[in-house]
Structure formats: structure tokens, C-alpha cells
Design a protein that fits this description.
Elements (H helix, E strand, L loop, with lengths): L2 E11 L5 H16 L17 E7 L3 E8 L5 H17 L5 E13 L14 E7 L2 E6 L3 H5 L2 H18 L6 E6 L11 H7 L3 E3 L6 E3 L1 H19 L5 E3 L4 E3 H7 L11 E5 L4 H14 L4 H5 L2 E8 L15 E2 L6 E5 L3 E3 L14 E11 L1 H22 L4 E6 L2 H5 L24 E9 L4 E10 L3 H5 L3 E2 L6 E8 H12 L8 H7 L10
Parallel strand pairs: 10-15, 14-21
Antiparallel strand pairs: 1-3, 1-4, 2-3, 4-6, 5-6, 7-18, 8-9, 11-13, 12-13, 15-17, 16-17, 17-22, 18-19, 19-20, 20-22
Helix pairs in contact: 1-2, 6-10, 6-13
The chain binds adenosine-5'-triphosphate, zinc ion and magnesium ion.
Zinc ion (ZN) binds next to strand 22.
Length: 516
């Protein structure tokens, strides 16, 4: 795709520019155009692609410059290079640069398809799109230029173009393994059956259930199986990951790029002074209504949201550290609390809820160690589903969860190549979903996954390993609601039809409520 940058900016000096200085500046411009801007540009690149100063005007105390470029020594990079180059020249005449005023910044892109969603950002004053040519008129300061805002806008638009091209293709899905078909004797919706038996009841909040003792007995039995058959034998240690995730963590994990429609946001009081809050309580006391608008004015934030993906909030524990070779691979897990997602409508069953319970397994080490651990987990899960739960299940390579959650487009290619893939591990980066057959709806339910996340998290949280090899990580999320939904959908609610180990672990159902 051809891209052109066009920039007009003024460099302000702290004193008047003399005629003699003017000549020196003109010489500096000449040098910049002929040598400075060409530095680092590969041979053979068309000169029109390389940044140039195409015009200038020197007045009392400003040097106004026009820059044009393609994608090499982009106009804004040329500006800063020139500033650095001309500063010592001005210095010899006892002049300093006081500031930069960006007067005009245009980006033109060719080959932009109709229907691309042009971002609505304060940096974009206006845009036109005609005959596949997109022109952006930017409103940026020199600080924005230093912060590479134009380059990021360009990347963003390229992403949106991909979204337009691949949008309809849906997520990647490629079968890896399918179990044999299992007897399909039970065909009812497990959630409805659980409700009928008072194993669960709707919570007061959206997509939330209150799990009665019988449901929890099942959850705990599944947890026990995961602990005894997977977590302990493979040597994972239990940790407690925080369940309130601040923006800082999601900025590093990548979730800040796209998870907004599904977040449960968290706000804090502007102050905890009881006098500041007195009105709110008083209003409620006399009306019986909680004054939400009044509260909105008394809170700060959101400062982040409730746990969404579970593993990101582990990473500050190792952030900025170098891990000793002997400690690798690090293997931990968390089952300390709920995850929350504002799911799309039609949430009936326990399998798609706004508040759910998940065991999250996380490991990190070299690329080889990370891939090896994923393979061990796959083997262990395989055994559990075949020999203990006797499920009808399958697994498939899918769009990596982190790409999906960053709102990235799956073009079918392996996700961005990652460092350390020398062993062929690079091919393995991505997510494998485990799915169970649901006889009642003749569909498949994703009930857990295993992901090799490459160097994404170690990079985001600046974690290194002693050997200086690239650090990789993986994670696996075991959804207890989803396990329960899958198991009951296939085996029914009567323990007579359950495999022995599950029957034993669950024990006699605890019937403690008698509703009259
Ligand atoms: P889906 O496509 O079904 O929404 P997902 O791709 O959003 O699932 P992940 O983000 O990969 O799911 O989450 C990992 C695991 O967390 C899932 O395999 C599942 O066990 C569990 N999970 C995710 N969302 C929910 C939910 N809304 N209710 C219950 N469990 C969930
Ligand atoms: Zn994870
Ligand atoms: Mg989802």
C-alpha cells in the first residue's frame, strides 16, 4: 500500500536569525536532503519514498519547513532528525530552538477499500476517501509526533482495512482431535433440570447464578479431579491472583486494545468522607430508591474492571524480574475467585454467564519448556476426558484468545512471529479449545482451552530469564460452569448414570432446602 506523509512545521528560535545564520541553515537543509535523511535507508529504495525538505521559509525567529515522504525517514522522523542536525549549527550563532509548531500534517493512503471504518480520534481533524485514496488531515503537536501518533494511526487504519477484508470470515477453527461418539441418552437442557431440582437459582444480577450445595458438590468434584490428575502431577503451585484489574495491567496484557464492551467496570469514591456521602444515604432513606446519578457524580474512575481473563493480574508478581534457570518452568494456578464478563444477550444457561468460576493454570520458561508443558497438559486433559469423565469431546486450533480479546483480525496466518521460535515452537503459538457435545441442542460447547502465548506476556511485563533466551508463557482456563454444563448435558442429573469416580467425589447430594 502506498503511503505519503506531508508535514509543515516551524522551528522557533530564541533570537533573531541573521542573514549569515540563514545561509548556514540553508546548507544544513541541503545536507539533510542529500545525506542525513538517507541514512539507514536500504539500497534500491526509490528516492521519492525517502523524507525530504521540499520547501522552507526563514523569517525573524522561525524556520518553517515542508517535509514530504513515503515510508522511509517519514516526514515527522525527518523533522526530528533535522532539528538535531541544525541545533549545533544554530548554537554556533548563539541561537537555540525554543519549540516546534506543527502547522499541517497530512497522510495519504492509496488502495483503501470503501467501507473502512475511519477512527474517530481527536488527532484526526478530517478525512476524505475517494477512489480508494484516503487523506487524513491530522491535528497533532510535536509531542504527538515524538510519541509516534501518526505511525500508530497508520497501523490502526491498516488493521481496520484487514477487518474489512477478513471481517466476514469468522474465527479460525481447525480440528485436532475428536473422541468417539458416546451414548446420547440424556437430551434435556441441564440448566433447566438444575433449576427444577433447586440446585441453582438466578442471582439478582445479570447472568449470575446462586449455586446450591448440589451444584457446588459437582464444582468441587471437578476441581478435585483437576487438582489430582493434572495440577499436582505436573507440579503446579497454587497462588491467589487479584480479581480487580487496573488499566496498567490491561495495558501490558493487551486487553486495553479491545475488551471494552465486555468489562464490568470498577469505580472508587471521590472521597470516603461520610459527610460527602450523606446525601446519598438520606435520599435512599426517604425514597427507597438508590440515586444512581447522584452517585455517579461522587465517584472517580473507572480505575479498571473485574477479573476478565484471570492470568493478566498474575504478571505484576514477576514484572521486571529475571527468573533463575533452576526455577524454570515456573508453574502456578489460581482458583481464588470469579471472572466477570458483560456477555451478549440471551444468557439462559450456566454455560454463558456474566459471573463464572475458572481454574487458571499459568506457566513460563523457555520456548521449548512452554511448548512441552502445553503438550503435557493436553495429554493429561485427554486422559481425564476419556477415562474419568467419559465425555464426547474434541479439540481444535482456534484464533488465539489474546488476538480475539484485543479485537485483532485473524487472517489465518500464524500470529505475529515471536522470538525464540527456533525449535519450530513459533508454529505452536496459539490457542487450542476443548469442546463438548451438547445433545440437547446438537451443538458443541467450548469448556476450556490451552494456549501457548509466546513471548507476549514476558514482553508486556518485562520478564526475562537467566539464560537470556526469550521467555515464553502459556495458560489454560478450566471453566467450572462449562465443565458442569457439558457433563450434565451428556450424563444427566442422576448420579446413577455418572462415571464412578465422579459419583464418589460428589457423594450424596446435600438436600438442605425444603421450599414450601
Ligand atoms: P466463548 O467463545 O464461548 O465466549 P471465550 O472464547 O470468550 O468463550 P475464553 O476467553 O477463551 O472464552 O475463556 C476461557 C474459558 O473461560 C472458556 O473456555 C470457558 O471455560 C470460560 N468462560 C469464558 N466465558 C465464559 C462465560 N461467559 N461463562 C462461563 N464460562 C466462561
Ligand atoms: Zn490466561
Ligand atoms: Mg466469550
Amino acid at each position: 500500500m502506498s503511503v505519503r506523509f506531508s508535514l509543515t512545521a516551524g522551528l522557533f528560535t530564541n533570537n533573531e536569525i541573521s542573514d549569515e545564520t540563514k545561509l548556514a541553515v540553508e546548507k544544513a537543509i541541503e545536507e539533510a536532503n542529500t545525506t542525513l535523511f538517507r541514512k539507514g535507508v536500504p539500497r534500491g529504495v526509490d528516492v521519492t519514498e525517502v523524507g525530504q525538505i521540499t520547501g522552507f521559509h526563514i523569517s525573524k525567529n522561525s524556520i518553517e519547513l515542508n517535509f514530504e515522504s513515503g515510508t522511509y525517514t517519514r516526514a515527522h522522523d525527518a523533522l526530528f532528525r533535522f532539528k538535531k542536525h541544525v541545533a549545533p549549527v544554530l548554537g554556533t550563532y548563539r541561537l537555540g530552538i525554543r519549540g516546534i509548531d506543527v502547522k499541517k500534517f497530512h497522510i495519504t493512503m492509496a488502495g483503501v477499500p470503501d467501507g473502512v471504518r475511519i477512527p474517530n480520534l481527536p488527532f484526526i481533524k478530517s478525512h476524505t476517501l475517494a477512489d480508494g485514496e484516503l487523506t487524513l488531515d491530522l491535528k497533532v503537536t510535536s509531542a504527538d509526533l515524538e510519541n509516534k501518533v501518526p505511525d500508530r494511526i497508520l497501523n490502526l487504519i491498516e488493521e481496520k482495512i484487514q477487518a474489512t477484508n477478513y471481517g466476514g470470515k469468522g474465527e479460525h477453527w481447525e480440528l485436532v482431535f475428536a473422541s468417539a461418539q458416546k451414548p446420547r441418552s440424556f437430551t434435556r437442557d441441564p440448566t433447566e433440570e438444575m433449576v427444577k431440582r433447586n440446585w441453582i437459582r438466578h442471582g439478582a444480577s445479570r447472568g449470575q447464578w446462586i449455586h446450591g450445595p448440589q451444584s457446588v458438590q459437582l464444582f468441587r468434584a471437578f476441581e478435585q479431579i483437576v487438582l489430582e490428575r493434572i495440577i499436582r502431577p505436573l507440579g503446579f503451585a497454587e497462588m491467589i491472583f487479584p480479581k480487580l484489574t487496573p488499566w496498567e495491567v490491561w495495558m501490558r496484557s493487551g486487553h486495553a486494545k479491545g475488551v471494552y464492551p465486555e468489562i464490568y467496570y470498577v469505580c472508587t469514591p471521590k472521597t470516603r468522607d461520610p459527610v460527602f456521602w450523606e446525601d446519598v444515604g438520606d435520599y435512599y432513606k426517604v425514597t427507597g430508591i438508590v440515586p444512581v446519578e447522584m452517585i455517579r457524580e461522587k465517584i472517580d474512575g473507572p480505575i479498571g474492571g473485574l477479573c476478565y481473563a484471570q492470568c493478566p493480574s498474575f504478571w505484576p508478581f514477576v514484572q521486571g524480574e529475571t527468573l533463575g534457570t533452576a526455577s524454570l518452568p515456573v508453574k502456578v494456578f489460581d482458583r481464588s475467585g470469579t471472572s466477570h464478563r458483560y456477555e451478549s444477550g440471551g444468557i439462559h444457561g450456566i454455560e454463558r454467564v456474566d459471573e463464572f468460576h475458572r481454574i487458571e493454570i499459568v506457566w513460563l520458561g523457555t520456548a521449548e519448556q512452554t511448548v512441552d508443558m502445553a503438550d503435557k497438559l493436553h495429554d493429561a486433559y485427554h486422559q481425564v476426558f476419556e477415562e474419568i469423565l467419559e465425555l464426547e469431546w474434541r479439540c481444535a486450533r482456534v484464533t488465539p484468545w489474546f488476538m480475539a480479546q484485543e479485537g485483532m483480525v485473524d487472517t489465518g496466518k500464524t500470529p505475529q512471529t515471536v522470538e525464540g521460535g527456533a525449535c519450530g515452537c513459533g508454529e505452536r503459538v496459539g490457542t487450542t479449545d476443548y469442546e463438548a457435545y451438547l445433545p440437547y441442542s446438537d451443538s458443541w460447547l467450548e469448556f476450556q482451552n490451552v494456549s501457548i502465548n509466546g513471548d507476549k506476556y514476558p514482553k508486556g511485563f518485562n520478564v526475562k530469564i537467566q539464560s537470556n533466551e526469550p521467555c515464553w508463557s502459556g495458560c489454560s482456563g478450566v471453566g467450572l460452569e462449562r465443565w458442569t454444563a457439558a457433563f450434565l448435558a451428556q450424563k444427566g442429573l442422576d448420579s446413577d448414570g455418572w462415571p464412578d469416580m465422579v459419583k464418589q467425589l460428589v457423594g450424596e447430594p446435600e438436600e438442605i432446602f425444603r421450599f414450601m
